[in-house]
């Protein structure tokens, strides 16, 4: 009752109530911001990981010493290993792709129709056209951003220029060939939608002068985090000299940078909660000073130091607990509607807040981790509680005689 009364100010105590209100807002905004930013960082990492591992294999097998001409036998042996879902032989090469609207570099991958259909990130995201009878034709599948930049659609022809062309007495001449677009897909990652094109494996082998051989074999596993255990098994199961790399090695710099940024953002945003907790200390200290006479009267009426301590602990902790819960609700609501909020702000400000060219993804993801969110809430509540201890201890130590001496 007393704690609730101290939180409701009268006219002469308005300043103290304003400080308590700012402390409440600080805790609420700090917790909400921390939850939102961590959820966006988790979503960003998860989306990138799913996109990268949806296109690239968890393990990459490349030949050593000789060309990989027995790729069918090697792929069959690898698929029989425990923990391997499927393998994908491919031919890969850099080309210059051109269309009516321009020309730029692209990565062309030759794969079989069956293998391409086993990649849902491509097979299930075809916007126009079809991948049916992909192996029987000589067409290519491109991403939506590449189609927009080239100014082409399904049925139009794009020209590929490869430096690895025909060998003539004058040297190697570039190979120039036109291919019809048979499908346009949208993975949702701008780097892949704008730079990767898929071609039938047999046609890619002819185009890149690699008849009967492949560049490598991508291996997809049941659990991407188990690649460390599976790597030696794949090296042994290949049955020939190979060089095997996993997705963590190939993307170590990228994901390490994301992890560092995530940790730094957590520390920086945690300072907001700490500052709000310091506001609780200042507000409670002023409240104790203002209520000195009331504390003295309570003590003379028989209130113990422990009772006075509890009153002010409850007063300060109420600000922190209610602010933390309000921040959790605010953060939860924002995370559920993060993409509509982004679109609304972009529409109001006439700016693009989340450019796909800079952030790779076409939408703003948010993934709230229950353990992480619980840690943020508990940490904010503990800080709020600790912030009340010193002012409450000062109130409990107040001498009634000194407080009433000049009254």
Automatic annotation (TrEMBL):
Keyword entries, A-Z: Cell membrane, Lipoprotein, Membrane, Transmembrane, Transmembrane helix, Transport
Annotated ranges, domain MacB-like periplasmic core: 23-228
An example Gene Ontology CC term for this record: plasma membrane protein complex
UniProt KW Cell membrane keyword: yes
ABC3 transporter permease C-terminal domain ranges (all copies): 267-400
Recorded topology in the membrane: Multi-pass membrane protein
Location of this chain's protein in the cell: Cell membrane
Domain of life, per lineage: Bacteria
Bilayer-spanning residue ranges: 15-41, 264-288, 308-334, 373-393
Record PANTHER family: LIPOPROTEIN-RELEASING SYSTEM TRANSMEMBRANE PROTEIN LOLE
Family matches, as NCBIfam families: lolCE
Family per similarity comment: Belongs to the ABC-4 integral membrane protein family. LolC/E subfamily.
Protein name: Lipoprotein-releasing ABC transporter permease subunit
């Amino acid at each position: 009752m007393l704690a609730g009364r101290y939180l409701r100010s009268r006219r002469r105590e308005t300043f103290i109530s304003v400080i308590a209100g700012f402390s409440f807002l600080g805790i609420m905004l700090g917790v909400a911001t921390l939850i939102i930013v961590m959820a966006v960082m988790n979503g960003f990492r998860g989306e990138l990981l799913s996109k990268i591992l949806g296109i690239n294999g968890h393990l990459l097998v490349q030949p050593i010493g000789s060309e990989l001409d027995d790729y069918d036998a090697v792929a069959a042996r690898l698929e029989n290993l425990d923990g391997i879902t499927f393998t994908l032989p491919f031919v890969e090469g850099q080309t210059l792709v051109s269309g009516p609207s321009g020309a730029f570099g692209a990565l062309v991958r030759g794969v079989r129709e069956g293998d391409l259909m086993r990649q849902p990130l491509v097979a299930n995201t075809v916007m126009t056209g079809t991948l049916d009878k992909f192996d029987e034709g000589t067409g290519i599948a491109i991403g939506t951003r590449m189609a927009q930049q080239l100014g082409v659609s399904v049925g139009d022809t794009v020209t590929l220029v490869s430096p690895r062309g025909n060998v003539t007495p004058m040297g190697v001449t570039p190979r120039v060939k036109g291919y019809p677009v048979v499908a346009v897909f949208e993975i949702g990652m701008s780097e892949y939608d704008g730079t990767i094109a898929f071609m039938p494996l047999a046609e890619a082998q002819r185009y890149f002068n690699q008849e009967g051989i492949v560049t490598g074999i991508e291996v997809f596993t049941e659990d991407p985090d188990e690649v460390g255990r599976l790597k030696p098994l794949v090296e042994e199961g290949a049955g020939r000299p190979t060089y095997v790399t996993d997705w963590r090695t190939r993307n170590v710099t990228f994901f390490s940078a994301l992890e560092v940024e995530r940790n730094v953002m957590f520390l920086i945003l945690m300072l907001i909660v700490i500052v709000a907790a310091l506001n609780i200390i200042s507000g409670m200290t002023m409240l104790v000073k203002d209520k000195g006479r009331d504390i003295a009267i309570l003590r003379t009426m028989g209130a113990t130091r422990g009772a006075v301590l509890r009153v002010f602990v409850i007063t300060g902790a109420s600000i922190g607990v209610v602010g933390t819960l309000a921040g959790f609700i605010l953060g939860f609501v924002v995370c559920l509607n993060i993409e509509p909020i982004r679109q609304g702000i972009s529409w109001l400000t006439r700016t693009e807040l989340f450019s796909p060219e800079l952030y790779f993804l076409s939408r703003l993801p948010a993934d709230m981790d229950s353990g992480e969110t619980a840690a943020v809430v508990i940490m904010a509540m503990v800080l709020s509680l600790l912030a009340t201890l010193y002012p409450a201890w000062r109130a409990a130590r107040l001498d009634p005689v000194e407080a009433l001496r000049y009254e």
